[in-house]
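Hi R.,

Here's the chain you asked about this morning:
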Amino acid sequence: MKELPLIIFTLTMQAAIGTIVWVTILSFKNKENLEFKTNTLVALLLSAIGMVASLVHLGKPHLALTSMSNLASSWLSREIFLSGGFFVLLLVFCWLERTGKAQSLQKGLSILLSLTGLAAVFAMAQLYRQTIIPAWQSVHTIVDFYATTLVLGAIVYFVTFGREKLETLPRLDLVVLGVVLLQTAFLPGYVAGLGSLAGAGQESIALLAGSLSLTVFFRWLCLLGGILILVLSRTGRLASQANFLYVAALVLVVGEFLGRYLFYASGIPIGFGIL
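And here is the predicted structure, written out as tokens:
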């Protein structure tokens, strides 16, 4: 799977960004912020893995610096700059959070982190939309990337919250349910638009309906089934049982991985070209 480094990069970075977005939103309802330290540390580790995967994909680490030389017009330059900026800011934030220094600046920095991360996700999506691959050119790519960011961010937040405080978890599961339903609502239009194209668009549809159809089925089974399990895990007596929550998290992560695999596997370029 030659696109594995890109799958790892996009998923781990989006998971880290989503985690920080949720931490930033929820921190305004909390006075002490102590429970967020594990969340932000895991986000830092995920973004570090993403940066390493990005360098592996480039092949030569110094290419990351040269790739940032065209910020004015290149979405690749913007993606690398914003992703790297997010990682550096998160590193500083984690250090301030754990040392207790500059506490008055931490909320402002978390907002800046979230905005930088969300901008990085937009740059990732735009990078693919500017290619010669019809399957990536629609607004569905933006919707898909942001949906993954919010879903995986919520999962990381839930899993790293702490078993002893499960019953106090916010109902992010309902937000995630809404995000996945919105993502599902965009699917028919995406398929119809792709099917109306000739050549590469038709080839992508043929792949998704043919050799990749089983993967498509399991992707949506995991996403929708995982959301159902997640919502159930936050209700009644199940709200205090961590194992049910962890099963939901695992199923959703598998669904997001399959979705990103399908994103790359169904990408057929127009004629001959390079990404």
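One quick note: Residues 159 and 246 are 7 Å apart (CA to CA).

Cheers,
M.
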